[in-house]
Amino acid sequence: MADQAPIGVFDSGVGGLSVLGEIRRLLPNESLLYVADSAHVPYGEKTPAFIRERSTAIAEFLLGQGAKALVLACNTATAAAVAELRERYPQLPIIGMEPAVKPAAAATRSGVVGVLATTGTLKSAKFAALLDRFASDVRVITQPCPGLVERIEAGELNGAATRELLRGWVEPLLAEGCDTLILGCTHYPFIKPLLRELVPESVSLIDTGAAVARHLQRVLGERAQLAAGPALAARFWSSGAQSELAAVLPLLWGDKKNVEAFVG
User: Fold this and answer.
1) 74, 80, 115, 259: which one is catalytic?
2) Is 74 annotated as catalytic?
3) Topology (CATH) of 7-97+209-261
4) Beta partners for residue 9, in sequence order
5) Active site includes 145?
6) What are the pLDDT tens digits along the chain (264 aa)?
7) CA 149 to CA 188: how far, in whole Å?
8) Choosing from 185, 206, 213, 245, which is the catalytic residue?
9) Which of 20, 52, 172, 214 would you call most buried, defined as having the most Cβ atoms within 10 angstroms of its Cβ?
10) What is the CATH number of domain 101-206?
């Protein structure tokens, strides 16, 4: 039996829109809810305790809106909060993110993999466990990217300043023989076109948005919770300035949308 209830998705800011877009492409019949916790972006510089507190507040809100599943469209929030949320809501499908270490380790030919991510993701125990499990036979070079999330939040996807930041992080990885780059933050797929200009075509760029959408589809299918459609219009909330999210939605989502205030 079809389940027309919406799917709730959240991130510290606009990065999770890259995941929301993959869900929309794969599951066009699903109604979508999105919360950008933009008052606290980026999560990568916050403490795990703070991120758990925010994640719980947003999860409660989305469940109050009738969400049948939650997607933590943020690597840092997943590392800090997904275990606690699954314990709190044991019957609820909760899908998290993790850097694509396994597919990157399988894809590399040189044996050198680079990771672009936030400081919070790179310091997490979850990321360390991924390296231990899947990257024992490859060399992984991690590169924190302070300030990149903020540029993407502002819609500065291909300007000179963003280009120079990326160049400074990527060139040392290429010099070390990296032929595979993990985009370890959901914001980073939005700068793929710019990144593609800075690295050779032979370098693979790997993120996990599409894989998360497929996992969500599988989980909802197993629970007979896939929607038959038609989908309702996606709804958006921000804990920061609503006008700022509304301004970048045409660029990052492809459509103008009203943004509601999230207070929590």
Assistant:
1) 74
2) yes
3) Rossmann fold (3.40.50)
4) 34, 71
5) no
6) 569 999 999 999 999 999 999 999 999 999 999 999 999 999 888 999 999 999 999 999 999 999 999 999 999 999 999 999 999 999 999 999 988 999 999 999 999 999 999 888 888 888 888 999 888 899 999 999 999 999 999 999 999 999 999 999 999 999 999 999 999 999 999 999 999 999 999 999 999 999 999 999 999 999 999 999 899 999 999 999 999 999 999 999 999 999 999 998
7) 8
8) 185
9) 20
10) 3.40.50.1860
